[in-house]
Design brief:
This protein has 147 residues and is of the alpha/beta class. 30% of the residues lie in helices and 22% in strands. It is built from four helices and six strands, in the order E-H-E-E-H-H-E-H-E-E. The longest helix is centred in the middle third of the chain and has 17 residues.
């Protein structure tokens, strides 16, 4: 079975404490679903996590979130590749996936075009936007939450 490289957003910790960010909640629920279906899940996220996964790859620290978050409440963070949080986390995600990927793996994103650089760095893997509820869709494979 394929491994799922599940990307979280760098403005949150994948914990219940960040439940005002709907995409964080969806990431946790999606990880539970994937694990229940028997997939190997590698989660690329911050250092605090409650989502089930086989491996947590820390791509941003809480200290970095606080320093580079600009004082904006986490649920109002700008989801964009030019956000300093994304500029820190995305290259780390790219490098970590490079070390772990295997043929037939998938990258699942929830950040739209703000995470396109991560999937574009791995054109050999299928990229899926698994819960679209945002602007900036880019992947050929998309799942809308309303579906």
């Amino acid at each position: 079975m394929s491994t799922i490289h599940l990307l979280s957003l760098p403005n949150v910790n994948t914990t219940a404490a960040f439940d005002l960010d709907g995409f964080c909640c969806v990431t946790i629920r999606f990880a539970k679903l994937l694990k229940g279906l028997g997939y190997r899940v590698i989660l690329y996220a911050s250092e605090f996590n409650e989502a089930p996964c086989d491996e947590l790859v820390t791509c941003i620290t809480v200290e970095e979130q606080q320093r580079w978050g600009g004082g904006t409440p986490y649920q109002h963070a700008k989801i964009a590749p030019d956000n300093p949080l994304w500029r820190l986390a995305s290259p780390r995600m790219i490098a970590a996936i490079q070390l772990r990927k295997r043929p037939q793996d998938l990258i699942c994103t929830i950040g739209g075009a703000s995470q396109a650089d991560v999937t574009n760095a791995h054109p050999d893997l299928l990229a899926v936007e698994y819960c679209i509820g945002y602007e900036g869709c880019y992947s050929q494979y998309r799942v809308f939450q309303s579906q």
